[in-house]
Amino acid sequence: MAAVAKRADASAAEALAGQSFQPQELVMTLLGSYVRSRHETVWSGGLVALLEEMGFSTGASRVALTRLVRRDLIARERSGRLIHYRITERADQVLAEGDRRIFSLGRADTLAGGWTMLWHDIPEAQRLERGRLARRLRFLGFGTLQDGLWISPHDREQEVVPLLEELGVAERAGVLVGDVAAMPGTAALVRRAWDLDALCERYRAFAVQFAPHARRRGAPRVDDREAFLVRTRIVHLFRGFPFLDPDLPDELMPDPRARRRAVDVFDAAYERLAEPAQRHFDAVTSGWQ
């Protein structure tokens, strides 16, 4: 049994291996985790230093910040010779929606409000809008059955109708909300739209890697810097799950225990490491000014 458990742990760990982080995405994680609730600006040099701690060069870090400014996700503010950044209204909305997804994911055992089906025939001339729609639908937990046909196991009308209008493609799309009949074929339909086996493997990998930091007793002793690095990685990896998990009820998941375990580990480690991680973030982003 011990050998089987070790093989399972190794397999789970491999599911997380090789995942590359992008500096722009990490900056958004940092802002959402350590800045947004305070409504403060943050020193650019401190952000660069933190990204360097996570393995990025100074050049790559500054390019990432510049691109986030161009995307209207952060705004520059000059104070003497120093540059600070603040979260824009657009970024605040993006981060708020992200928080709603990650802090509700896997917490409901039953479906509520019916399923949503969205179809579109957006032409090639609007491939930019089509790509943006696809990314937003994946973040909302939609899966695709075929080109232009998406489904979600939740009522997403309030999210997708304004999104279609914002992208200017409402006339090329339709939305239907309703119940799905309780039939044996439902499970097969779900597996066509989402790779649930791979999802559960990633959940197991997450729990294996970070379970030690979630323990009430016997957790590894870490200093503030280590707490920051571990907590940031935890949040950043967990933020990826809403793109993969439609938040199905347990009866439609191949291994519902994998998600429950990952959620429990996330909640416990996120809270346990919060104070020392915030201390390190504050020390780096304010101590050198």
UniProtKB/TrEMBL annotation:
User: Where does the record place the Transcriptional repressor PaaX-like N-terminal domain?
Assistant: 24-91
**Where does this protein have coiled-coil stretches?**
none
Q: Specify the taxonomic lineage.
A: Bacteria, Bacillati, Actinomycetota, Thermoleophilia, Solirubrobacterales
The Transcriptional repressor PaaX-like C-terminal domain extends over: 194-282
Residues annotated as domain Transcriptional repressor PaaX-like central Cas2-like = 111-187
Top-level taxon in the UniProt lineage: Bacteria
Picking any one GO biological process from the record gives: DNA-templated transcription
Q: What is this protein called?
A: Transcriptional regulator, PaaX family
